[in-house]
């Protein structure tokens, strides 16, 4: 599936991030818990260099709880600090603040010994579009989301949000655009609604989504549409069954694939199927 994507802002965003990293103690990389790999930009690690980093998995309430456990173990094994959150409901925010302090504790202790008392931790959030950056900033800032005054030595365009007495969040463009070199990454982003419908073939995306669901979540596919299928049923035949069940027919009784695809894609985005994840750690081995 050919996804056409011309962000135009990538170079500017990378430059802004590079310019502001010198002000930052720790980077918060925000990803979608349903696709932790596909929802990150592969250039993040190269950009942040040796900066400390916490991976924050947002929308954890929409992901498969069992797959979340696998990712939890994956990050533990890799020695990568992580936190699962639901930014809209505010779940995991306290844990994120505690994790920031935990990761930075050795640095803060060292600075105290050097006489740097009451030093504040400065954070930057990075994430691709639609992963929840703005929501996280508003949630983690709470009543303090109103920006603080400029910090001496920092350009006027940089504003800071006071998270707590010892944590500041730099509110600067921290969004990196995804890359679609890999067709599968583009598909997963399309499934969760992170890219515009105008830049991909919805019918092809819906057909491949059916293929994924029949392998990973056959019971959910069956229960949602009340259709029967087995290993010999093709993905297209399943789509036909869904269309017939929902009476999505064109003139002459032909299958209306456009409407059927739109319905399937909309239902997966609205989480009508329940909690679903689209990738898990074993795929990355």
Describe the structure.
The protein is an alpha/beta fold. The protein folds into 2 domains: 10-171, 3-Layer(aba) Sandwich (Rossmann fold); 201-284, Conserved Hypothetical Protein Ylqf, Chain: A, domain 2 (Orthogonal Bundle), CATH 1.10.1580.10. It is 41% helix and 12% strand. It contains 10 helices and 6 strands. The protein has helices at residues 10-20, 44-48, 65-78, 93-113, 133-141, 183-191, 202-216, 218-225, 235-245, 257-269, and strands at 26-32, 52-58, 82-84, 121-126, 159-164, 167-171. Strands 3-2-1-4-6-5 form a 6-stranded mixed beta sheet, with helices on both faces. β5 (159-164) and β6 form a beta hairpin. The model is unreliable at 146-156 (pLDDT under 50). GO terms for molecular function: GTP binding; GTPase activity. Required for a late step of 50S ribosomal subunit assembly. Has GTPase activity. It is found in: Cytoplasm. GTP binds at residues 58-61, 130-135, 174. Residues 11-178 form the CP-type G domain.
What's this entry about, in short?
With 285 residues, this protein is of the alpha/beta class.
Key features of this structure:
Rossmann fold; six-stranded mixed β-sheet; Conserved Hypothetical Protein Ylqf, Chain: A, domain 2; 10 helices; alpha/beta; 285 residues; 2 domains
Largest sheet: 6 strands, mixed
**Strand residues, percent:** 5-15%
> How many strand units?
6
CATH architecture of the largest domain: 3-Layer(aba) Sandwich
Order of helices and strands: HEHEHEHEHEEHHHHH
Please give the count of helices.
Answer: 10
Question: Biggest sheet, strands in spatial order?
Answer: 3-2-1-4-6-5
**What general outline do the C-alpha atoms trace?**
elongated
State the end-to-end CA separation: 24 Å
Helix-strand makeup class = alpha/beta
Number of domains: 2
Share of helix among residues?
Answer: 40-55%
Q: Spans with pLDDT under 50 lasting ≥5 residues?
A: 146-156
CATH superfamily of the largest domain: P-loop containing nucleotide triphosphate hydrolases
Nearest-integer average pLDDT = 88
CATH fold name of the largest domain:
Rossmann fold
């Amino acid at each position: 599936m050919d996804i056409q994507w011309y962000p135009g802002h990538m170079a500017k965003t990378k430059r802004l991030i590079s310019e502001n990293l010198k002000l930052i103690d720790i980077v918060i990389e925000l990803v979608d818990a349903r696709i932790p790999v596909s929802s990150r930009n592969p250039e993040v690690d190269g950009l942040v260099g040796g900066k400390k980093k916490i991976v924050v998995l947002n929308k954890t309430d929409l992901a498969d709880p069992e797959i979340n456990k696998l990712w939890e173990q994956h990050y533990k094994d890799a020695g990568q600090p992580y936190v699962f959150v639901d930014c809209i409901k505010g779940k995991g925010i306290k844990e994120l603040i505690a994790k920031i302090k935990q990761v930075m504790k050795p640095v803060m202790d060292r600075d105290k010994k050097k006489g740097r008392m009451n030093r504040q931790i400065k954070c930057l959030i990075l994430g691709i579009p639609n992963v929840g950056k703005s929501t996280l900033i508003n949630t983690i800032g709470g009543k303090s989301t109103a920006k603080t005054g400029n910090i001496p030595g920092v350009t006027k365009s940089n504003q800071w949000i006071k998270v707590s007495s010892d944590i500041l969040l730099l509110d600067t463009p921290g969004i990196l655009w995804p890359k679609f070199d890999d067709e599968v990454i583009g598909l997963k982003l399309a499934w969760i609604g992170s890219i515009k419908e105008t830049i991909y073939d919805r019918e092809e995306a819906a057909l491949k989504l059916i293929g994924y669901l029949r392998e990973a979540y056959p019971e959910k596919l069956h229960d949602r549409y009340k259709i029967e299928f087995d290993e010999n049923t093709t993905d297209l035949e399943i789509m036909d069954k869904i269309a017939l069940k929902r009476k999505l027919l064109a003139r002459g009784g032909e299958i209306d694939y456009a409407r059927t695809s739109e319905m399937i894609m909309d239902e997966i985005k609205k989480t009508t199927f329940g909690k679903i994840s689209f990738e898990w750690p074993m795929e990355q081995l």
